[in-house]
Design brief:
mainly alpha; Growth Hormone, Chain: A; two-stranded antiparallel ribbon; 24 helices; globular
């Protein structure tokens, strides 16, 4: 039986490999539909000049155009709104002569439109986990993403109706897409052997591929066919993914009609008794008073604060402080996310190797990964803060900060399944709620420091805040986190001794750490 399991685990084209790719693409689709408006809106707004507002970075003072017509306008205190760059200012006589379709939205309206996706997004996180536990990840993740995809087809129509209509539509889209992330851990707990979790959770970094490809992809479409076709193209791609998801994905090996007998036996044997075969009630009191879980929440808040600061606001920083043009801004904004995926993948291989060969305890692997995702990212964020007007150093620091964040999938994110396979989707839902609130906070912090003051000095303060949060969250995780299966994971029918250490058929310790004394685990409960 042991040899069969090993052979099954190394077979090519396994069902769980197909699952990995569809989850990966699903997250890419999820981020594609949430980010496409960020770049399309630049082409949707009518270029215009605005009185008595200065957004010119000190790094660009020597690059203001010398055209006489433009200089004459500068003498009348006209300068660019936040979404245009002084180095790319068009000739004034051409501004109103274009036949392209534009909307007369001001800066505040644009801000509301971009933020509206997150307004109710966060409240769906815990319900998403609960629904996945009850109805399965295939339904919740698939339908959540697909509704967000379908909304793309009507965004141009709503935009032409007015800003308020687009804000309402984006809020609905954000609400629907919010159920997807917390639902996916339920699938991981039923399909993925514990020693493969680090690698599989890298599928979640499909969101980085979505971010990496969306900006240049949408920029190309806008340049060739106009902004409205961005949403139609994203809708078509998302629909293709949904059809594949419906055909190939099932909630457990037992339900899958095409999984091989060998692979099914290997998965069941590896999971042992960590996953309940019947639905069990959520132990809310025990869950909400468990310190290792809250340490994981803090670590996720920190890692995502750094990531969101760069993902949501990085293009503005690159363009307005260092003066890159819009096409290059798209490439430079996307490149770090591609490197993040590669880093996550190779770090996950290292993490699983260390656990599988007992080179390091599971808890220590999670902490080592969190050190990179939070601590090292914080160091690069400080480097970005002190890069000043050196655009090359700034891009290197920004790229490295996003890249090392990829270790998050091997760290605190995978640690949620370690703590409680049975309730992992609900845990991820709580984490997603906290992370959703980060989506509110980071734009607010950036707006507070840079409103009508787009300077490197003000952006330095933004990066200081991010670095501090990253360092603090890393420290909290090191002190309080562990990856021992929580005593409240299993149902009451399972003996207490099996709650402490859960073993598979081959008497292999699945959670990677032995803790036979009740006090060793209970000391983490408040």
């Amino acid at each position: 039986m042991g040899n069969t399991n090993v052979e099954a685990s190394s077979t090519c084209c396994r069902t769980r490999d197909v699952l990995w790719h569809l989850v990966f693409i699903g997250f890419a689709v999820n981020y594609m539909i949430r980010l496409n408006l960020n770049i399309a809106i630049v082409s949707m707004i009518r270029p215009k000049l605005k009185d008595n507002i200065s957004v010119t970075s000190e790094c660009l003072d020597d690059t203001i155009p010398s055209n006489n017509t433009i200089n004459a306008e500068y003498e009348h205190n006209y300068t660019l709104p936040f979404y245009l760059n002084a180095t790319a200012l068009p000739k004034l006589e051409n501004i109103t002569s274009s036949t392209e379709e534009y909307f007369d939205w001001d800066e505040k309206e644009v801000g509301y439109i971009l933020a509206s996706f997150f307004w109710v997004h966060w409240i769906t996180q815990i319900p998403g986990g609960i629904l996945a536990t009850k109805y399965g990840t295939k339904f919740v993740f698939g339908v959540s993403n697909f509704i967000g995809v379908v909304v793309n087809f009507v965004i141009p129509w709503f935009a032409r109706k007015g800003a308020i209509y687009l804000i309402l539509l984006r809020s609905i889209q954000g609400f629907c897409c919010g159920f997807s992330l917390p639902s996916i851990h339920n699938l991981v707990s039923k399909w993925i052997p514990p020693n493969e979790r680090s690698k599989f959770v890298t599928a979640y970094t499909g969101n980085s591929i979505g971010a990496a490809l969306t900006y240049p992809f949408c920029g190309f479409i806008i340049e060739r066919w106009g902004w409205d076709n961005v949403f139609y193209a994203c809708g078509i791609l998302g629909t293709i993914w949904f059809l594949a998801w419906c055909f190939f994905v099932y909630d457990s090996p037992a339900e899958h009609p095409r999984v091989s007998h060998e692979e099914k036996e290997y998965i069941v044997s590896s999971l042992g008794e960590t996953v309940s075969k019947v639905e069990i009630p959520t132990p809310w009191k025990s869950l909400l008073t468990y310190l290792p879980f809250w340490a994981t929440v803090v670590a996720q808040i920190g890692a995502n604060w750094g990531l969101f600061t760069v993902t949501l606001n990085g293009p503005a920083y690159i363009k307005f402080i260092h003066g890159w043009d819009i096409r290059l801004t798209g490439v430079l904004s996307g490149m770090p996310h591609l490197l993040r995926v590669l880093f996550a993948y190779f770090f996950s291989i290292l993490g699983d190797y260390l656990i599988r060969n007992e080179k390091m305890k599971r808890t220590n692997v999670r902490k080592f990964a969190t050190f990179w995702a939070n601590g090292v990212q914080g160091a690069f964020m400080l480097g970005l803060a002190y890069s000043g007007c050196d655009k090359i150093t700034a891009m290197v620091m920004l790229t490295l900060a996003v890249t090392v964040n990829g270790a998050m999938s091997t760290g605190a994110l995978a640690g949620l399944v370690d703590i409680s396979p049975n309730h992992s989707s609900i845990l991820l839902g709580i984490v997603g709620t906290a992370v959703g609130l980060v989506g509110f906070c980071t734009p607010a912090v950036v707006g507070h420091f840079t409103f009508q003051n787009q300077t490197a000095v003000q952006w330095q303060k933004v990066f200081w805040v991010s670095a501090a949060i990253l360092f603090i969250s890393c420290t909290v995780y090191f002190i309080f986190a562990n990856s021992v299966i929580a005593p409240w994971n299993a149902s009451k029918e399972i003996p207490e001794s099996e709650n402490m250490v859960v073993k598979g058929k081959n008497n292999e310790t699945i959670n990677g750490e032995v803790s036979t004394e009740k006090e060793e685990i209970e000391k983490y409960s408040v």
